[in-house]
Design a protein that fits this description.
Blueprint: H1 14-26, E1 39-41, E2 44-46, E3 59-64, E4 70-79, E5 82-88, H2 95-99, E6 103-109, H3 112-115, E7 121-124, E8 134-137, E9 146-149, E10 155-157, H4 160-163, E11 167-168, E12 171-172, H5 174-184, H6 195-205
Parallel strand pairs: 6-12, 8-11
Antiparallel strand pairs: 1-2, 3-4, 3-7, 4-5, 5-6, 8-9, 9-10
């Protein structure tokens, strides 16, 4: 987020305003008297409704793995409602240090956790460099085995040997990716249903 937009009297765009509210929900020590104002309705105290948060390529965000710890992630590509995201191995230091510390998990998810503010967006920067993933399409037995890139703009016929080096596209709930992060940080047990997040991270990091 642009630091200048947080200065008193500065004019914030709707997108910056929503991102600031998102950070406030998970970091209550960051206060803004306008955006954090409460309204009283009868005997009930309510907060103003927040607008939906729209993630975009390059966004760096936080994923909570416990009440005391977050891990950083980034949106590195988008194809319609699908977001290709990575979670970084390091969770301490500057954003630059964390991004440079390597990828631990990766997945293709929808945007629910950004829209509701559970994964607050903290800044936007050029996406970390990764190897472009390929996904298996079709079946060997049907004679239509192919590989396609993330956004489906490139596809080519694949041999069974070539296809074996890749995997079918898995589109996951963002909560499942959060569970994988929690498991990596010892907050829950790992299970084989989370392997897709680890395997995709390996493919993106290879080469």
């Amino acid at each position: 987020m642009n630091g200048a937009s947080n200065q008193p009297g500065a004019v914030q765009s709707d997108d910056e305003d929503v991102r600031w509210r998102s950070i406030q929900r998970t970091h209550p020590d960051v206060m803004d008297t306008v955006h954090c104002s409460w309204r009283r309705r009868g005997n009930r105290v309510t907060k103003p409704k927040s607008k939906r948060i729209h993630a975009r390529v390059g966004d760096v965000f936080l994923v909570p793995v416990s009440d005391e710890q977050d891990v950083y992630g980034q949106v590195i590509d988008q194809a319609g409602p699908q977001f290709l995201v990575v979670l970084f191995r390091s969770s301490a230091g500057s954003v630059e240090d964390i991004v440079g510390g390597g990828i631990q998990l990766a997945g293709i998810v929808f945007d629910a956790k950004w829209r509701n503010g559970d994964w607050p967006i903290v800044t936007n920067r050029p996406p970390v460099k990764v190897r472009s993933p390929w996904f298996v399409v079709g079946h060997e037995g049907l004679g239509n085995l192919r590989l396609e890139n993330f956004d489906g703009s490139v596809t080519h016929v694949a041999t069974p040997t070539e296809a074996a080096k890749h995997r079918y596209r898995t589109i996951s709930s963002p909560m499942a990716l959060q569970w994988a992060a929690e498991a990596k940080h010892g907050r829950r047990e790992w299970n084989k249903d989370l392997d897709c997040f680890r395997d995709l991270a390996v493919e993106l990091s290879s080469g």
